[in-house]
């Protein structure tokens, strides 16, 4: 008969080898917090729970390992994981659900009597979460491997990142109370982080009771650490910038204030940096500390979210041999993400890592307030700091120096123009970066969408110069709220350009509607990937980009000219096979409800107008430009303030109530039996009777239009436009005219108006269309 004691001995003997790193307890723990969580955790539901093993890691006290064993391999896991008495996985997850009220938990299930034969599964259950996610391969590992994998897990990173963001908010409030200027807060933290790199300071600061001496010590340590790699000019600038520390009255005038601050920085920020390497923590602090003063946007600085800086490195296929240049370095987020990918490709070679950090990462930052953060950031990530210059990237000497480095990859997020007359255009920074790259180098830049869209003379000149000298490979249209955490509203795109190879005539550029990155805005957390969707989305984007795959409503390859709009929004189409009867029924139901609420229907009927059984999939579809099949007009609008008392519906860009935003009377009125389309929304509405309209509301007409055809077209337009148009890419008249919508067609390929009319007529609620009055 199988003997579970043998299984337990497999686990016991494995962890016995790591006696200096773990504490192994069986069934009970002396830890009172563990005892408390298991007091009612019996697998049978009758009281105290007694897992086979409870393992604590000496270097990671917040992580508890719980192990459940079964001798029979067939008793490893049940289909629904709901039989904890009988199955190892079920039992481990059962105990994990209790322990996770107080701890992060690694649940291990082992089934089998020998190490060679055992079935082993691991699950991570973070504190306060009900999610139990598989982690690690099917083998018992060393404590150090468990800790490394634990910190590399995306869920653990999100937990630590949320904790860090929460700490930064509290820290920001504390420094505000201490009257530390917003512009100095990130500098102060960066100085403390650099000082903590010195082992003697880290060991001794806790015993320093004199705040003035501690402040001076921080400054001395910072300059001593940086002195080796910086020339006199840069060192002098940093000395000047960090000099404020010993004069911050609130920090040095209160007993223990500065010492406690250093302790908190060490435990909350320094530990995060050590556990999650190659993250632009100082950049995120800068955003947090300045966002309430709104100074980051005012300076033209919009710091790129970390998952996008990592995307840049993937797009450019950065590797151990790459030489990376950022001419708008900011806090060095791009260089840090590039470093991370390059170090991974070095596969543990210390020689390659040293070469990467000391000679393959280069940056230029003009602003003296940001430069110290760039230097500090590179220092915290171990070297590379000597290659960050405080200068103008347009200085011919800087350009010449950087060209000698032979960069193969350029990355940048240029400062966005806050003063249109005097600030340099974003295109100038892109062309400057390309100027430095070697032949065939890859430049990846994130720009305001307006740079891709504008067809004014100056913008066309920039685009012409780019295509004359370089190749536009791809443009990604990015999520509208990408910079939400910086409190910036810029809608942006990413451009991928090959340096010094003129864009070949007839070559297509790959355009992607990359609007969904899995991130959403959450209260108190900002924009975050709460469901861990980004990794799979990123991989899909990269695969499609590398293969130049064309996907309906996502990507399109087009031959572009400088006068064109360089974005997917102008060209992508949706697959009509995705349209369903429910879409049309929804339009009909919403329209009927709006008409009833406006008094144009005495009662709502549920029945169809005609008895047919038309099917959307049984007819052929083609895409048409709206302007080629219908007439689009904008016309004059009536200001709401000018409306006299009346009962004509006033149509605006509102997305509800059939577009009605009140009633009134005005001499600028329009006949009904048409479709209204708001310029900045995706919602189109059929208007049965006479109406007034507000600004930026387009009117679409056709000779065959009636309520049935109108509601068919409304459904198709909303389907085709969803996810494309917004305030950054408005559905203005010229875009509406050229936008593509799918329509059913006759045998001759013309729009099948009769099918559209009959299809709506067979749907529930359609009988209401004949009963609508215009009074």
Number of domains: 4
Major sheet details: 9 strands, mixed
Q: What's the multimeric state?
A: single chain
**What percentage of residues falls in helices of 4 or more residues?**
25-40%
Name given to the CATH homologous superfamily of the largest domain: Vaccinia Virus protein VP39
Name the beta content range: 15-25%
Rg over CA atoms: 32 Å
Question: Which helices and strands, and how do they pair?
Answer:
Elements: H1 4-16, E1 22-25, H2 32-37, E2 53-57, E3 60-70, H3 88-99, E4 104-111, E5 119-125, E6 132-134, H4 143-152, H5 154-177, H6 182-196, H7 199-204, H8 211-227, H9 232-242, H10 249-252, H11 257-275, H12 281-291, H13 295-298, H14 306-315, E7 324-326, H15 333-346, H16 350-359, E8 361-365, H17 371-380, E9 388-390, H18 396-404, E10 409-412, H19 426-436, E11 442-448, H20 449-453, H21 457-469, E12 471-477, E13 492-498, E14 508-513, E15 520-522, E16 526-528, H22 534-547, E17 555-559, H23 581-597, E18 621-625, H24 626-629, E19 631-633, E20 644-651, E21 660-665, E22 674-678, E23 684-687, E24 692-693, E25 697-701, H25 707-721, H26 733-738, E26 740-744, H27 753-761
Parallel strand pairs: 3-4, 7-8, 7-10, 8-9, 10-11, 12-14, 20-24
Antiparallel strand pairs: 1-2, 2-3, 4-5, 5-6, 11-13, 12-13, 14-17, 15-16, 18-26, 19-25, 20-21, 22-23, 22-25
Helix pairs in contact: 6-8, 6-11, 6-12, 6-17, 8-9, 14-15, 14-22, 15-16, 23-25, 25-27
